[in-house]
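Sequence, please.
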């Protein structure tokens, strides 16, 4: 299981850009939360049954998404 933590600009399209990134890869997250902070939004996505290499690639690609200011991934105990 992997958790992706994404920080993005306060824009209505930011959440859609992040969720679209998973949808393009036919990945359905187990859990997704979004929190509005004073100067940005924080999006957390948990995905089960993801290969570690694929998870690392996704984290790197998320960091390149327009409106994303930071992305990190961590492997969680199952």
């Amino acid at each position: 299981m992997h958790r992706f933590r994404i920080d993005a600009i306060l824009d209505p399209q930011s959440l859609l850009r992040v969720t679209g990134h998973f949808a393009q890869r036919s990945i359905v997250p187990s859990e997704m939360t979004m929190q509005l902070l004073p100067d940005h939004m924080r999006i957390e996505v948990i995905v089960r049954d993801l290969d570690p290499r694929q998870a690392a690639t996704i984290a790197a690609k998320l960091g390149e998404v327009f409106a994303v200011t930071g992305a990190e991934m961590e492997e969680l105990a199952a």
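The two ends are 6 Å apart (CA to CA).
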